[in-house]
Each structure stands twice: as C-alpha cells, then as structure tokens.
C-alpha cells in the first residue's frame, strides 16, 4: 500500500507540488504524464532515494520519514533497467537475497524459480551487456521481485522496447497484477499501457496531480483541457454557454453552436472535448429531427489514411479531427476540399473544467 | 574491434604520421642512447647492478612508491567518491586544491612538504614526539611522493566513479544494500580499471619524483637522487647504468600492468 500526502519535491528544474496519491494493497496504479513532469523523481522519493521538501510517504501504513531505502520494502526498476554490468543474470537476481544474508541453497532455489518463471533460465550465466532490451527487462523484474517487495516501482518499463517485446512484457505485467501480491506504481507516458494494466490512473501535469480515476474516466471523461489534450483527445475547443428556445444548453464557439449533454450556467466560459472517433463525416446534411445531434458544416482539409483507421482533418467554422475505422470494402474517403458535415451526438461532447480559459 | 573497416591511407593521415612519428622517434632514440652502450658492456652493467647502494636505492624507491600508492588508495578513493557524486558548489574548490600539486614547480612542492614535515613543522613535530621522523628518512620520501601523486590518483578514480551511473547504486539500495554496501559491491568493482590506472599513474609519478624528495630526504637515496648524485660526481657511465636498470624495470612493470588491466573487468564491457 502506498499513500502520498501533500508531497512536494524540488530538484533542479523539476518540481512536484502537493502530490496526494493512494494505491491499495495489490493495486496497479499508472502515473501518467508528459516527459519532464518529474515522474521518475516521484518514484525515487517513494523509494527513499530522495528526500521530499514537505509531505509524507506512507508505505504499508508506516510513515517512511527517515527510513533508508534498504528498509522500505520497495523495489525500483528504472527505464534503462540498470542491471549490474559486472554480474551475471543470476548474480543480478541474487543481489538482494545476498544482501539479506539468506543461506546459499535458498538463494539458488529462489533464483532458479525466478529464472524459470520469467523464461530466462538460458540466460543465467550471461552478462547484461549481451542481452536484448526485452531480456534485460525480465532480468530487472526478476531481480526486483526476488526479495518479495511489497511495493514495486516501475519507471517507463516498456519505453525502450520494440512493439513485439512490449506486448510480451505487458503480458508479464498482467500476470503479476493478477497475482495481487505486490502494489505496483508504474510511470508511463503512453495511454495504451495504462489502459491495459491500470486499476487506477493518476495524471501528473505541471508538477501537480491533474486527475485521478479509472482508465475509462481519464480517457473518456477528462476533467480539464490539459488532461484532455494529454490523453489525446483531438478536439478541445472553448466557448461561451448560451441557451436556445427549448432551454437546452449550447456552447458558442465563434459562430458555431454545439449542443451540450447537460445543462450549464449560461454565459460561462467552458472548454469541451470531442473524441475524434465520435465524429462521423457525412457528405450530405443528415435529416433533421434526430434529437441531440450536432451537425457542423466543414471543409475537408486533409485525409490521412492509416492501416486500420482513416483520419480526416476538417476546417471551416471550427477545426475538427475525425477518425473512423477502415475496412477494405470501405467506400471512398472524402476528398480534400470537399464540403461535408461533421456529425456527432451531444452525449459525445465532454464538458471539461469550466472557468476562465 | 577485429573487423574495423580498412581506412584508405590518404595524404592527411600520412602527414600526421610523419609529424607525430617524430615524438615516437624521440622516445625510442632516447631509450636507445641509454640502452645500446649499456648492452654493449654487460660486465660493467652487472657490476653496477649488484652494488649495494644501487640495490638499496631501488628498494627504497619501490617500497616508498608502494607505500605512497597504498596511502592514496586508502585516503584518495573515498575523496574521489565524494567528489564524483557530490553536487555541492564546494566541489570545484576541493578539486582545485587537489590538483594544486600538478601546477606547482616540484621544488615548491618539496619546500612545502619540508616545512610541514620537518622536525619543527606543524605535522612533523607531533609525529617526531610519537617517534616518527620525516627529515632524511623513509617516511619523508613517502610524504613527498603522496603530495605530488595525489592529483593523478584522485582525478583518475573520480572520473571512473563518475562514469558509474548513480542509478545502479539506487537500485542496490532498494534491493537492501546500505550505502556502504552499494559502493563496495557496485561502484568500486565497476571503477576497478580507473582505480588501477590511477594507482599506476600515481606510482609512476611517485617513483620518479626527485626535487620534492631531496628537499626533505636526500638520504636514504631514491634512484633519482642516486642517478643525480653519480651524474654530478663524475660517473656518467654509472649513472647511465642505473638509468638503464630503471628503464628495464619500469618497462616490465608497465607491460605487466597493461596485460593485467586489459583482463580486468572484461566481462562487463558493454557490447
């Protein structure tokens, strides 16, 4: 269990302020944030390698103030894995057990079972310098888990892996998560990993916690324009709330009116986010009458076909991005310069934090 | 290394070789002017080599050099560590102080060592009362050697330790190592090459010291003192024989060192 309470840390240009965060026993928490947000620094504070300016770190219901790293029961895996280059794979894994002065036969058994568990028995006597990224990552995980830590801190564990290795490693982490024996705090800047692994996501922007929630909440209900932009919501717009004759709330962006899913204070400045995959590009104006349907006339600025999706950049009264799935029997995409309509439901419009923008 | 691409030798590299080769030629020529006449008269060489005074000077030189290096390893390694890891603004000041002997004329260094360690000196006096004398004594030689060799050792080891990522120590700490254990099991083994080469550089500097040594301890004579002594008292041939003996010993030690340091720490070379 990890609990951070109003933690503030400064180191050089990095600055974390008032970080409050909680991870229950066996929970998998992903700390998401742009690079340079001080995420690694936060892990080092939890591990006791760096002292916070203010605030408290509690691990397993014990205040960690003044407790040195070797007595915290945390294991830290850095992005570069930081394997000891002068020790073999087995030597690396045994390191923590040797420090605990475990008997030699017990160490050997534990190392062998970890090697087998991670499928790296064949690498036993190799030195880290000759291992691939994926292999190094497994060794680093095995080494970190050897001493049965209660808290595992992972710093971008998949960042330097190629896609195939990454999928493989995500599977390893899923197994670890499902065992629920260790509380995991993983730093990441990729939403995909968070989706695949996290019970809870904490978004760190500008040295502060911007939002905490389940992956669905973070990715589909970001509470602020910053979070929306960070999680990759393509269409973040701001405008003023107005009301129509039927008493519905709309946001006025330039001269475009967009129906909102819920009632908002009239005259308030708000930001809205519209996920690109919720926008349908239609060559003709859809028949009126569908309740809550937004229909914005646009011009196609650019069409970007991908492997499985096609992205359409629209401009006109407001710039929008639409993404749709693509199959071989798809009809033609819209043409650049064509006049089309961006169609989306009011319930797909996310109202982000209201207030001065 | 073995399959490095063959470079075409152009006029640039040829001219560099011609110019740079002069330095190599100078060293080889200098060694030859000592070696050739000595090897031509092996009888004389042997008689000088077996002189008690010569053997004693060589023994004193190497023993004092060994002591100096041991002291440097014991005191200099921790200093190199804090200098490599520290982020305090005082680090620059300390590094300048450590490097000072590099910039000083050796006679100045010698005078400083003498004034400090002479029987009435601030350090010499308490040691004298404890029964250790530096003036014209073995430990005076060691003191002068340590003084002049410190920057060579500390700088080399500091550089080596700075190259060991601090994250490795961090990981060791989270795996249960105290800071002492992390340094002992991770940082020092990974700096072993720099420690060795620092020790070797310092040793070479120490056994070659002349000016600083004679100011505190003309006797017992180190090899440098003896060569100078024989040179000025008319025995050019004798001083050359001693020089040749030193040349051979140093060459052997140097080659042995190269061999050992190449083997050492080979496993953890990143490929």
Q: Which descriptor suits the 3D outline of chain A?
A: elongated
Largest sheet of chain B: none
CATH architecture of the largest domain in chain A: 3-Layer(aba) Sandwich
Q: Please work out how many helical segments of chain A DSSP would assign.
A: 8
Radius of gyration of chain A: 25 Å
Quaternary organization: heterodimer
Structural domains of chain A: how many: 2
Low-confidence stretches of chain B: none
The helix tally of chain B amounts to: 13
Low-confidence stretches of chain A: none
Q: Can you walk me through this structure?
A:
The complex is a heterodimer of chains A (357) and B (271). Chain A is an alpha+beta fold and 357 residues long. Chain A folds into two domains: 2-226, Rossmann fold; 234-352, OB fold (Dihydrolipoamide Acetyltransferase, E2P). Chain A has helices spanning 39-47, 89-99, 104-117, 133-145, 163-179, 191-197, 215-220, 225-230, and strands at 2-11, 14-23, 28-32, 54-59, 62-63, 74-77, 151-155, 183-188, 200-205, 208-213, 235-243, 249-253, 256-259, 269-274, 280-282, 293-305, 309-316, 320-325, 339-345, 350-352. In chain A, strands 6-7-8-3-9-10 form a six-stranded mixed β-sheet, with helices on both faces. A five-stranded antiparallel β-sheet of chain A has the order 13-12-11-14-20. In chain A, strands 15-19-16-17-18 form a five-stranded antiparallel β-sheet, with no helix packed on it. Chain A is elongated. The two termini of chain A are 37 Å apart. The model of chain A has no long low-confidence stretch (mean pLDDT 88). In chain B, 35% of the residues are buried. In chain B, 78% of the residues lie in helices and 0% in strands. Chain B starts with 10 loop residues before the first helix and ends in an 8-residue tail after the last helix. Chain B has a domain at 50-221: MetI-like (MetI-like fold), CATH 1.10.3720.10. The chains are: A alpha+beta (357), B mainly alpha (271).
